[in-house]
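Lecture 7, part 2: worked example. A protein chain together with uracil.
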Amino acid sequence: MRLDKFLADCGVGSRTEIKTFLKKKRVLVNGALETSPKRQIDEKKDTITFDGQVLSHETFVYYLLNKPRGVVSATEDREHKTVLDLLDDMARVKEVFPVGRLDKDTHGLLLLTNNGALAHAMLSPKKHVDKTYRAKVSGLMTVEDQKRFGQGIALKDFTCQPAKLEILSLDEEQESSLVEITIAEGKFHQVKRMVAACGKEVVDLQRLTMGPLTLPEDLDRGDYRRLTEEELASLEIFDVAL
Ligand code: URA
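Predicted complex, written out as structure tokens:
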């Protein structure tokens, strides 16, 4: 590929900026100064350095974000801050997008990537990827509700697949519950609607897991990091090139 494309893919700057960087002798190819943007390089074999730093060319990138409340799971929005606004410049260069959506007021685990095949596999209803949510609920959830979740709750427009409702704690005085809900689908407002079907209301919703990925305890709300080698390896179950 052309050297300027390689540098742009690595997030060094725009094509125009890169031209200037090359003129200013800030780029080496295999230890030798290179000033031509048209120079053909082999990204697998050649060593490219910018300001003394070796650059590595990645096709796919994977970000794990602890989405805070108040941002939308989109790449662009006229009115609201998006999850892309929380990531670094490389995320935009690589054109990452969220794998599925969380509601604006939901927080927790969100995977963002530019690997379309992986996103497609993780969101495919056929793959039954489990997602676990922790919910604070206004109202006391019951064993009866657990049974309804287990049988598959019928909503107005569709019947949910069997889901798991675990009651973590009940506060009789405040009439509130803390629960964990695991679903294998991802329909619009699904968790909130399932709880509403039991006559209660979700007042806080956090996603804890998606497939093999778990929200790291040390990742503050609004923070993100790239997937670790282990997390990436855990995605091999989806049988797509990573
Ligand atoms: N279910 C919901 O109701 N909201 C979400 O954001 C995710 C699942």
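The mean pLDDT is 96. The pocket of uracil is lined by residues 102-103, 106, 189-192, 205 (CB under 6 Å). Keep this in mind for problem set question 3.
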